[in-house]
Amino acid sequence: MAVIKERPTESYTLERDDVYKKAKELTIRTLPFDIESFIRKQGIIVHKEDMDNDISGYLEKRGNDWIIGVNKYHAPRRQRFTLAHEYAHFVIHKELIEREKKHFDTILFRGKENDAVETKANELAANILMPEGLFEQFVKDGVRNLSDLADKFNVSPAAIRYRAYKLGHIKEY
Q: Which of 17, 30, 55, 92 is within CB 3.0–4.6 Å of 51 for a Cys-Cys bond?
């Protein structure tokens, strides 16, 4: 059983705060964050599709429509992270995606080789689904088992483990 230590710091990104403010305006549940409803209420189309196992999802602009595609064969909690990750691309890399027309993600939280674009999308996705302040509060309140934290945020244990690592609660990912 994996457990993590408490860490007494807290910070937020502007993008995450903007997302949470908008979610509250749209009356979207934020724990666990209802990422799919949030995305759909902004007019972004969500498709769950057949994809090769190594493709998690994509963000694409078709005409005037923005579409996030998610691999329907991946576990639901992984799909949630993919949705948040692709939405993060929409927020912070929209102009880049418009030029490319379509952006595929073949890896999410899969190691140290992510480039800056993927790293930034992963960070915002993690901030949306597992906000640092709330993560820290759960740890402070004694929820330190990775599986229990994954249940609280409705994400995979791998996502929680990576988040715990990035927040300094564990030494290795």
A: 55
Give the DSSP letter string of 8-59: ------HHHHHHHHHHHHTT--BTTB-HHHHHHHTT-EEEEE---TT--EEE
Q: How many CA atoms, within 13 angstroms, populate the side-chain half-sphere of residue 85? A: 26
* pTM for this prediction: 0.84
Q: Which amino acid is at 138?
A: F
Burial of 113 (C-beta count, 10 Å sphere; 0-12/13-18/19+): exposed
Spatial distance between the Cα atoms of 83 and 65, rounded to a whole number of angstroms: 16
Task: Please answer whether residues 71 and 82 qualify as being in contact, where contact means their C-beta atoms are separated by less than 8 angstroms.
Answer: yes
Q: Is the pLDDT of residue 67 over 60?
A: yes
Q: 76-80: long-range contacts at Cβ-Cβ below 8 A with a sequence spacing of 24 or more?
A: 77/150, 77/154, 77/155, 77/156, 77/159, 78/108, 78/156, 79/48, 80/32, 80/35, 80/36, 80/129, 80/154, 80/155
